[in-house]
Amino acid sequence: MIEEALHFLLPTWWEVEITVAAAVFVIITYWFFTYGNGDVDENQAIREGLIGDGIDDKVKMGQLKGDPQSNSAYVIKLELLAAKNLIGANLNGMSDPYAIITCGEEKRFSSMVPGSRNPMWGEEFNFAVDDLPVKINVTIYDWDIIWKSTVLGSVTVPVETEGQTGAVWYSLDSTSGQVCLHIKTIKLPVNSSRVLNGYSGANTRRRISSDKQGPTVVHQKPGPLQTIFKLLPDEVVEHSYSCALERSFLYHGRMYVSAWHICFHSNVFSKQMKVMIPFQDIDEIKRSQHAFINPAITIILRMGAGGHGVPPLGSPDGRVRYKFASFWNRNHALRTLQRFAKNFHTMLEAEKKENAESALRAHSSSSLKERSQVKISEDSLPTTTKFQPFVKEEALVSIYNDTFPCTAEQFFNVLLHDGSNYTNEYRLARKDSNLVMGQWQAANEYDGQVREIKFRSLCTSPMCPPDTAMTEYQHAVLSPDKKVLVFETVQHAHDVPFGSYFEVHCKWRLETSSESSCTMEIKAEMYKKEVETMLEVARSYIKSKTSGGGEIENAPSSSSSSSVLQDNNTL
């Protein structure tokens, strides 16, 4: 009796072998789908993802030409409310619908609603456009785990005027199906920017403006951000992680982190998935769990941002999110992403401040306008005006302190006056081209006078194009006794990667010490070699203007500029 019970309860050797083999197969399968595709290096990821995504290989992920800080005329807020009577693409007669909304070159993804022909979304998408009318295309797809997504229908809606349409049902161009949209068009204030108003979308990173002349090619080897995600050459991978995107199951791939984006690429069963999340669109990055035992990171996008690359996960509050799991060290990756998000917003605030200062200089050096002359009575009290600093003196370093063979007044009249040819000779010595010089004019924001010059300058750095467009703002003020001259410059490089975030400041201070000389101090951020070139050309130019008797010839009409320079009394 006992022997029969043991024979019944204990498995046979053949049953043990089958159980072990099945367990090993399950473990290997789980490892393959969860970790197996994440050990590939970046070169393999590049080879696997050279072209396109799972929906349309011909459409690059939305990259809007132009600077995100430029003025945007309109913002279109599209609410994807619902759809009904969609085609049943699955064998069970249902579909897993999601939508791709396209406006111009921007493309956004809605969340996927599993197993429904009448999905409810309630999601908002914001698009910034420069002109009306525009056309918005909404295409509904059926999500498939392995195969390419199937089109269930699409509709194109023209937006011609400012205002809102209300909730309207639009018929799809298929045998069955309608989609409900609510479209609201808002005209932005003249001087507001997309970033400041929260409508930046997928295009918040710095873009090279399309109206700038000359080459903008960056000489460096393309990385995965360029070959896979078609981002600009100046964007590089700072960190990369092996992880998995949560969808119907875990799609394992690699995450790339740059200063402007969090990107993810996966190629499982030849189904390519690419996600490109701008830091500007991120509302929150937090810890989460996948299947209770797999630590994950959830990236929640702000309202109106929409998904980028593949359908995101929906949420009751209308914000979409992406969840990534299977990190080797989830906490380290989380801290890195949060730090990069903080750095991005810090950089954005610094750029706003820099742009405000640049706009002030540009406004001061714009074209001359008629100014009415106001007579002040002799018994009126003088008013004190607080002027803006033109350069950041705390960032300057003294690089030159010596005498110069002319007085402070002669330095301005001979070298800097509107009629002087010194700037042309100096730029020619540096092999600069396309020089365009503005005229000196009084500025309300700064003491003395300002002017603007533009030119193209050669660039020798391997990260730069062969040459770059430059803008230099100049500021000069002469003391009432004409013995002290302060000359300041601020330079911007337009075509150099990251050039819009940096300025080159320089300050010259000249004080007359005798009838034919002055002491000169130069503080700058630029290279000392360039200052030496400026001084060498200046001495040569002064010498060419010196007569046989030792007198220095002034430039034509110098008295007018000098008088305006000293209109503001103090340095």
Can you offer a commentary on this structure?
This protein has 571 residues and is an alpha+beta fold. The chain has 9 helices and 23 strands. Strands 16, 17, 18, 19, 20, 21, 22 and 23 form an 8-stranded antiparallel beta sheet that branches. Strands 12-11-10-9-15-14-13 form a 7-stranded antiparallel beta sheet, with helices on both faces. A 4-stranded antiparallel beta sheet has the order 4-1-8-7, with no helix packed on it. Strand 20 (467-478) and strand 21 (484-493) form a beta hairpin. Helix 6 (408-416) packs across helix 9 (558-565) and helix 7 crosses helix 8 (528-544). It starts with a helix and ends in a 6-residue tail after the last helix. 36% of the residues are buried.
Total helical segments:
9
What profile does the largest beta sheet have?
8 strands, antiparallel
Number of DSSP E strands? 23
Low-confidence stretches: 35-71, 194-198, 200-219, 367-384, 557-564, 567-571
How far apart the termini lie comes to 113 Å
Strand content: 25-35%
Helix content: 10-25%
If you compute it from the alpha carbons, what radius of gyration comes out, rounded to the nearest whole angstrom? 32 Å
| Shape label | elongated
